[in-house]
Amino acid sequence: MLNITLYDSVIACLSLLSSVAADANAAEPSSSESASPSTFKPPQVFKNANLVHVISLEKNFAKEAINVLIENVSTEPQDEYFLPFTSSQMERVGGFEVKDRKDPDVVGFVAEAVEVDPSSNLQYYRIRLPKPLAPNGQQTLGISFYYLEAFTPLPAAIEQSEKQYLVYSFSAYCPSSYPTIKQKTEVKLPSSDIPDYTIIAASGDEKEFPVKQGSKLTYGPFPEVPAGAVSPAKVRYEFTKPVTHVSQLERDIEVSHWGGNIAFEERYTLYNQGANLSAQFNRVKWAQSQYFNPQTYALKEMKFPLKVGSKDAYFTDAIGNVSTSRFRSNKREAVLELKPRYPVFGGWKYPFTIGWNADSRRFLKKKSDDTYLLNVPLLEGPKQAEGVGYEHVQVRVLLPEGAENVKFYTTAPESSITEHNVHLERTYLDTIGRTVLTIKARNLVDDLRDRELIVSYDYSTVAILRKPFVIFASMMAVFTSMWAISKVDVKFSTK
Amino acid sequence: MDSSLLEIWQTAPGSPFLPTVGKGSQFLVGFVLLLLGLSLTGAFALNRSLVTLPVLGIPASLAIAYGTVYMFCAVGVYV
Fold it and tell me: What is the per-residue DSSP string for A317-334?
């Protein structure tokens, strides 16, 4: 057991004092993190009139939502709002989305990471508002994002049947580049078993923060806090579920016009980032525990709800076919249930491959004579109650040979897409090679598994007929050679 | 990223793409065409002349060409 509470309370109090001291110069950040050399400072043109920071730790990634009422305090209309992150957070943040909380019809927020000073520990996401905010104008933003690899197990090594506890570090003040008039931070946890959490001095009616209500901790409401102020806090809570992390997912989607088929294949490099085993794995104990089914932090089963109509599913790993899988496909659902070859405990790795086929009519539309539209899910990973985080995702759409003018759009957050390109790749019966659209994304989570990927491409009749034509030409060459060779006279002369 | 694609997909007329030969009949079509192609090849092999080259060679090549493509699909290699 780590006594983090007292230590962190002291840090939090110091931080509170320093932020009060920094009040004289509101633009000066109070934390040591933000004190690192930085040439860029967002212009102080906004203030946060009211802010609610919700940290959800119910899954094995952290979901943060910042609902903030921003006000333009400058004399000019403003359209750029900055949100600070430390460089360590910047590597792990993903799924960044912005909405207008009051008016869902307002669209067109553009969120992107800005690299102004790579050496600085403080980096920013820039949110471009769809319309500049007039002086004294207000707008309610709903900002949401995820942190992967956000937790550390404590103790770091436990027994096979013990409970697992995770630690999450955050700031009781929502990190902001602007002064915040009123704010509170809510931490939602998976259970009410929370042995340690940072206690800080309170203001108003409360004696100390946080206020604990079941599985929820509430820090605040806090009075005015200057820009850049942080109050480090930690929470340690029970999470006896696998901390599933996919470090690399390669997803191939192969479109066949001749066969009327879309073939999917996914290659996972999966880790459990939970607590390690403190002793050797005991197979007998594990088998025994399966009879009374206690909660475990080992990953023992995964469920992949695929699109209705999926068929021919397979599940293999480095050794070969894994027989502990079940595929149920009917008119209403197509669920692939897998049991890994061994229970995946903390610190263990399990690379595996799954694949399946589907009819093209469910995903492919003919838009006009030569133009086709493909709509497939960007992610179709396991749907687990405890969630799954994906660090690197590579989606390859293998279009038919000769497809050109490839365009794509995904409903997943644009800031998650790091790279995309179109190139050629040769497979069976190809001459010039298939057109392959590769999309690379970072830090995705299974909450985004229903996001669509729409690809449009041109595929002419001439290109369609390339495959049979090449075989036809080859066969004609064979027949002509047969005929030509038959004309060669190789008999011995009788003269 | 072309954001207009989402709208285009939603408004595109409901004409799902269907292949010329459905998945269920790919094996039959592929097998029959390959058999026909091989028979014609055999016929050509017995009587090789400038006349039989187009008369038997072209239909044999066409049958083998389409037969090969459909047989590939029928065995699960969706080209």
Answer: ESSSB---EEEEE-SS-E
- Do A234 and A8 form a contact (C-beta atoms < 8 A)? yes
Residues 6+ away with beta carbon under 8 Å from A451? A377, A378, A379, A410, A411, A412
Q: What is the pLDDT of residue A33?
A: 38
Topology at the third CATH level for domain A4-238: Immunoglobulin-like (2.60.40)
pLDDT in tens, A344-396: 999 999 999 999 999 999 999 988 888 999 999 999 999 999 999 999 999 99
For an interface test with A, which of B9, B11, B34 has the most A Cβ atoms less than 10 Å from its Cβ? B9
DSSP bridge partners of A188: A56, A216
What is Dmax (Cα atoms) for chain B?
61
CA dist A120 and A74 (Å) reads: 27
User: In this predicted structure, what is the pLDDT of residue B14?
Assistant: 67
What are the boundaries of each domain within chain A?
A: 4-238, 244-469
Distance between terminal CA atoms of chain A?
A: 108
Q: Which CATH class is domain A244-469?
A: mainly beta
**CA–CA gap between residue A388 and residue A382 (Å, rounded):** 7
Q: pLDDT category, A316, cuts 50, 70, 90? A: very high
Does pLDDT of A5 surpass 70?
Answer: no
- pLDDT tens by residue, A223-250: 999 998 999 999 999 999 999 999 999 9
Integer Cα distance of A54 and A482 in angstroms: 77
* Cα–Cα distance measured from residue A422 to residue A405, given in angstroms and rounded to the nearest whole number: 10
> pLDDT class for A39, splitting at 50, 70, 90?
low
3-class state of residue A259 by DSSP = coil
pLDDT of residue A270: 96
The two domains A4-238 and A244-469 share their CATH topology (first three levels equal): yes
Domain residue limits, chain B: 20-74
Question: What pLDDT is recorded for position A19?
Answer: 39
Beta-sheet pairing, A46-56 with A183-188: parallel
Measured between beta carbons, the chain A residues lying within 8 angstroms of B71 are none
| A contacts of B9 (beta carbons < 8 Å) | 365, 373, 375, 454
B49 contacts in chain A (CB < 8 Å):
483
